[in-house]
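Late entry, evening session. Most of the bench is empty. Finally got around to the prediction I had been postponing all week. Sequence below, unchanged from the version circulated by S.P.
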Amino acid sequence: MGLALMIVDDSATMRKIIMKTVRMSGVEIERTEEAGNGIEALEKLNQGTVDMMLVDVNMPGMGGPELVKKVRELPSCSNTKIIMVSTESSQELIDNMLASGANGYITKPFTPENFQKKLMQCTN
């Protein structure tokens, strides 16, 4: 059985690149959702949860850090895995995101192997 995945990034092009890279990783995806920022992501989560979220850090409206905190407050999303995907690679930011409830962090540029490793770690 495949994962229900939500990709949250303000760039539609980046969402497509992430989806293509995830498919190339060999991880089985059953259903995908897309959101352009944290506000859209929360609206979609109110309609139905997902197993995993791939979330950009910097987005207008509501960025990744605030979204992680909000998702962690939702009882319906207690098992949802959140992996941050960003060009920002400071160890302090990564540590803060993990401490806030993110399950993993992938820096851009990424490879299918990066996604396979992180997605498998979070699903096992």
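Two things to note before I forget:
The mean pLDDT is 92.
The two ends are 14 Å apart (CA to CA).
Will write this up properly tomorrow.
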